[in-house]
Amino acid sequence: MRPSVWSMIAAAVVLTACGAADDGDTGSASAPSNTAATPTSPPETTPTGAPETTPTGAPEVTATSPAPSSEAPQVSVPEELAFTASTVDGGTFDGASLAGRPAVLWFWAPWCPVCQREAPLIAELAQQYGQQVAFVGVAGLSGDVSAMEEFIADGGVEGIPHIDDSGGDVYSRFGVTQQYDIGFVSADGTVEVIRGPLEEDEIRAEVERLVTD
């Protein structure tokens, strides 16, 4: 009988220990919370190196230089050049177009032997200095236009304009009384008429003076 009693006592002790252990585990367990976690918004971030933006409608300021004036400088027209005249080829010549630049007014007549001798030189000088000096022929003391045209062709001076001064108006304006006078107009408007006939080297020297003045 004695061993059985001890066996029963041992079993009871084991059961009591197991119950205490179970009670301890149950007490240590946390009850589930019924409160839901409140979500939070992520912090706002600015991308590194993102370009700055200009508000829509903001005026863009650009530095500009003043626009240059388009007005051409006024050139004083000498009284002698304030005229218009017909040309041998039927056009119109405006004397004011010579203002502000050197010019040569070559007075001639179709029947003049001195003028015929001067024609090749005038053509040569016009070819050489035409970019710097304006050359204009003034055909006067004759009303024969066909003779003027023939003189121009024979003399090789087709490259310059020729005024038909049959009435002598341009001759008188410059005080010219003979067909081989030559007028030299400086860039400053000074007009000088040299009485002819002139030698070739004299004419050339006057033209070169206009270029260098």
Summarize the helices and strands and which ones pair or pack.
Elements: H1 2-28, E1 84-86, E2 92-94, E3 103-108, H2 113-129, E4 134-140, H3 145-155, E5 162-165, H4 169-173, E6 182-185, E7 191-194, H5 200-212
Parallel strand pairs: 3-4, 4-5
Antiparallel strand pairs: 1-2, 3-6, 6-7
Keywords:
34% helix; globular; two-stranded antiparallel sheet; 213 residues; alpha/beta; 5-stranded mixed beta sheet
Can you tell me about this structure?
The protein has five helices and seven strands, in the order αβββαβαβαββα. It has 213 residues and is an alpha/beta fold. The strands form two sheets. The protein has a five-stranded mixed β-sheet. Helix 2 packs parallel to helix 5. The longest helix has 27 residues. It starts with a helix and ends with a helix. The N terminus is likely disordered.
